[in-house]
Amino acid sequence: EEEPDPSDLSVDHDFFQEQVWPRLARRVPAFESLRPRGAWAGYYDHNAFDRNGVLGPHPKLENLFLAAGFSGHGLQHAPAAGRAVAELVLKGRYESLDLRRLGWSRIEEGEPLE
């Protein structure tokens, strides 16, 4: 209930200093001596279906390849996802890693990847 309005993307420095930072400092004592020098607020893509990335060609839109919906893990998955999409575009198939299970078919079939 105390979190700032998510539709307002301005940074609420007071909320961080009064609510978030003290909890961080209690959990990780090294935060006691650290202070943020900058901040941003924004949205990230979120796959509500199964919280996993959606990777590969769109089933209905020709020439549309996606690497989306990684639900906050995009930076961690970016190297492999980028390579996989590049292979699909250039070679028409996965070569390094078979990532077909991250494709659209699981969504169309209603079978989340657990």
Short description:
Keywords: Oxidoreductase. Required for the assembly of the mitochondrial membrane respiratory chain NADH dehydrogenase (Complex I). Involved in mid-late stages of complex I assembly. The chain has 114 residues and is mainly α.
What does this structure look like?
By secondary structure, the chain is mainly alpha-helical. It folds into two domains: 11-42, no CATH class; 54-109, no CATH class. Helix content is 32%, strand content 7%. It contains three helices and two strands. The protein has helices spanning 13-27, 74-91, 105-108; strands at residues 54-57, 65-68. The two termini are 30 Å apart.
**What does the radius of gyration come to?**
19 Å
Coarse morphology = elongated
Q: Look at the structure and give the mean pLDDT.
A: 90
β-sheet strand percentage: 5-15%
Number of strands: 2
What is the share of helical residues?
25-40%
Uncertain spans, ≥5 residues at pLDDT below 50? none
Distance between the ends? 30 Å
Structural class: mainly alpha
Q: Count the helices. How many?
A: 3
What number of domains?
2
Largest sheet: 2 strands, antiparallel
Sequence of secondary-structure elements: HEEHH
Largest beta sheet: strand ordering: 1-2
Domain FAD dependent oxidoreductase: 5-88
InterPro entries: FAD-dep_OxRdtase, FAD/NAD-bd_sf
Organism: Pluvianellus socialis
Keywords: Oxidoreductase
